Amino acid sequence: MPEGDTLHRTAAGLRPYLVGRTVTAARTGGQGAVPQVDRIVGREIRSVEALGKNLLIRFDGDLELRTHLRMNGSWHRYRPGERWRRPPSRARLVLEVPGAVAVCFDAPVVELFEERAEALHPSLGRLGPDLLASDFDRDEALRRLRAPGRRDETISAALLDQRALAGVGNIWRNETLFAERVDPLARVGDLDNDTLRRLVDTARRLLTASAATAPGRAPLHVYRRTGRPCPRCRTAIRSEPLPGETPRTTYCCPRCQGTERA
Q1: In contact, 239 and 251? CB cutoff 8 Å
Q2: What are the angstrom distances between the C-alpha of 63 and each of 46, 113, 123?
Q3: Cβ pair 30, 90 in contact under 8 A
Q4: Residues whose CB is less than 8 angstroms from the CB of residue 261 and which lie 6 or more positions away in sequence, other chains included
Q5: Which of 39, 64, 165, 251 sees the fewest Cβ atoms within 10 Å?
Q6: Model confidence over 11-41: pLDDT tens digits?
Q7: How far apart are CA 150 and CA 50, in angstroms?
Q8: Structure letter (DSSP) for residue 217
Q9: Alpha-carbon distance 185 to 127, whole Å?
Q10: For the chain, which domains are there?
């Protein structure tokens, strides 16, 4: 599933071709039509932003389009008449503006709503602070991680909870826990404030660095490196599904992260 860094790169790639331009055509297909998408035709695009794992396109007249790519979705940008790299049957949404065509393929979530309803949106309204936001609120993220209901959660599950802090997925939760030498199964309630603070800061640092790097170029130390040597101690990296998280897998160094169990 694309994480916050991928969504920020996607938004940055679309922004120069969409913002300030008027939608000349909009159509939907693929897994289902988007209700009332024709309402955005003739409206100027005001912004293209990433929020956690969501891409938000805002239009004049208080309209907002949200896509969530889940496992297989992606946004592409083409010149008018250019051949698409995926079959048209997989296009969930097509936006045409002067000089460009933006196509969202395979996304399971594409919805249009009034911008003023964003705070009440069942997903957007509950998001924690966005790790990649310029005004990221670390204290609020820590407060949410310390919520009583998360005390018995594993830190691995808590880092993935978008209601605590938005943007982390399976790649960067594993890399963050490795960087800070934290056991993925450690309970949130057993971690001290300094450890939680370091985890939040490291997740933000790693996501920020990856967002500024070409896709697939950010260095990974444990993710999908099962059986390969730890870059610190040369112990073989271990992988296993976490309880209740199938099909997500955790990757860690048993020695560096203290996960050697009977």
Answers
A1: yes
A2: 10, 6, 17
A3: yes
A4: none
A5: 39
A6: 999 999 999 999 999 999 876 778 899 999 9
A7: 26
A8: -
A9: 23
A10: 4-126 (3.20.190.10), 138-252 (1.10.8.50)
Q: Please tell me the distance from the alpha carbon of residue 182 to that of residue 172, in angstroms, as a whole number.
A: 13
Cα–chain center distance at 102: 20
What DSSP string runs through 122-168? Answer: TTGGG---BTTSTT--HHHHHHHHT-GGGTTSBHHHHHH-TTTSBS-
Amino acid identity, position 101 = V
How deeply is 55 buried, as exposed, middle or buried, from its count of CB atoms within 10 A (0-12, 13-18, 19+)?
buried
* Active-site amino acid positions: 2-3, 53, 248
Helix axes 170-179, 193-211, angle to 10 degrees: 130
pLDDT digits (tens, 9 = 90+) for 125-182: 999 999 999 999 999 999 999 999 999 999 999 999 999 999 999 999 999 999 999 9
Please report where in the chains the tokens 């992260």 appear, as a residue.
257
Closest CA to 215 of 94, 74, 79: 74
Q: Copy the structure tokens of residue 243.
A: 């309880």
Give the Cα separation of 7 and 54 in Å (integer). 7
Residue type, 172: W
Q: Is the pTM of this model over 0.85?
A: yes
- Two tokens, residue 247: 């099909």
Radius of gyration for the alpha carbons in the chain, expressed in angstroms and rounded: 20
Please choose, from the candidates 147, 152, 145, 200, the residue with its C-alpha nearest in 3D space to the C-alpha of residue 173.
200
